Amino acid sequence: MAHEQILTAAGLSGETLHGGTLAVTTPIDGREIARVHQHTAAEMDAMIDAARDAFESWRTVPAPRRGELVRLIGEELRASKEQLGALVSLECGKIVQEGMGEVQEMIDICDFAVGVSRQLHGLTIASERPGHVMRETWHPLGVCGVISAFNFPVAVWSWNAALALVCGDPVIWKPSEKTPLTALATQGIVERALARFGDAPPALSQVAIGGAELGAALTASPHVALVSATGSTRMGRAVASAMAERLGRTILELGGNNAMIVTPSADLDLATRAIVFSAVGTAGQRCTSLRRLIVHDDVFDDLLPRLRSVYDGLPIGDPLTEGVLVGPLIDERAFVAMQNALERSRADGGEVFGGDRTLADEHPDAYYVRPAIVEMPEQTELVREETFAPLLYAMRYRELPDAIAMHNDVPQGLSSCIFSTDVRETEAFLSATGSDCGIANVNIGPSGAEIGGAFGGEKDTGGGRESGADAWRGYMRRQTNTVNYSRELPLAQGISFEI
Ligand code: UN1
């Protein structure tokens, strides 16, 4: 499909596409596809006011009825899956299969949130005092801000928004300035659902397009109860410190430096497939992408040639073309960062396979690369950094405890996995002294998590969790109630206070 057609099919045209100053280019050929309106910090303040008004009424709507709105959003997403999936592909460069997968993830979280809308339950607690009951109640929290990254331009918003909406909270979304079109198209989908729903306040869902100053306006406002931010650790630190200053709530999903340990008993065919998908999928630009391979000495020289031969045949090109598996990097900066890392890896004694630019004649303004594998003599400082590109460092180990130590010896703690058919090894990896990540898998790669499992990680990854069984609690205010239905006033802890 031509680029113009993709935009039209996703419901974008006229003023929305061409009425502004923020230039949007597609990483497919580097060409400009739109110029969209940018919001000012003052407009953001107006959005926050409108969201506060929306909160006043939305919090009184029964939660299962709020779930009905999310059910309708899910229906509209189903109807638009192909169109939005293609737009994701056009705007951020991931292959169409993955673009559609991302929309499927949005549908999945909507289904999940609809169920949750009937399960926002608290505990009843045995009181130590006669004639007393204790319970906890969960109330809507307030306005929620969502800051999302270019690589999952729509799914991450939906993980937050679907739950926030059923919990009674309006959402203001500040997407990456690299991917405003998918956000605007998604807003169109939400507006269709709102129209079908009937009487919801329109400011329940708003999109603010622009740069970091809009994120700063969200974090600065005392009227934004929660900011959920996905992106670099640097950005997350800025969000966290601004929110801490005013004691606001955050959910942070930041950098990853995900590894796989391959032990001598591993099924190497399975491992090879998992490695390639997780290292080169989304051109290595997932926060869950596989970046480090820690392979036992006995299988290293078997596995690495297999990988190199698969890498040699990888179809690289236009992500909209059926059969292509590796699309472009998001922009020149990403390309330069990858080349710098490759340069540094050589200086560290690494042996580089692939990594060079390709299709430059056809697309001089786009950045396609051959995914790289770098055999490293050890885990150097460079390997401990996250480079957002299809760049996989491979290292050897002899004893599993050493592999686990190397695995954990990075600042990030998002996702991890082990390939092994030995239960002693797999259980050691999942134990308290095993992987220190938020996600730890066995015989499956670190990327491609599904809705229902808590998603997020420790250390520099920020500690947040999204879309898991109890994720809804993050979007609600917890209240403990003690009710005295007796005619006495006994004090807790047996305190006597006679007046
Ligand atoms: C991200 O890269 O920010 O687990 C999210 C995965 C996807 C989500 C990735 N479900 O790879």
Can you describe what's shown?
By secondary structure, this protein is of the alpha/beta class. 39% of the residues lie in helices and 19% in strands. It contains 15 helices and 21 strands. The protein has helices at residues 3-9, 14-18, 41-58, 63-79, 81-92, 96-116, 155-166, 180-197, 212-220, 233-245, 268-280, 297-312, 332-347, 400-408, 423-430; strands at residues 22-25, 32-36, 124-125, 132-140, 143-147, 171-174, 205-207, 224-230, 249-253, 258-262, 290-296, 351-353, 357-358, 368-369, 372-375, 391-397, 412-413, 415-419, 439-442, 458-459, 476-484. The strands form 6 sheets. A 7-stranded mixed sheet has the order 12-15-16-11-10-18-19, with helices on both faces. Strands 7-6-5-8-9 form a 5-stranded parallel sheet, with helices on both faces. Strand 1 and strand 2 form a beta hairpin. The longest helix has 21 residues, at 96-116. It is globular, with a radius of gyration of 24 Å. The N and C termini lie far apart (82 Å). The chain binds 2-aminohexanedioic acid. Residues 105, 151-152, 156, 230, 286-288, 447-449 line the site of 2-aminohexanedioic acid (UN1). 2-aminohexanedioic acid is lined by residues 105, 151-152, 156, 230, 286-288, 447-449.
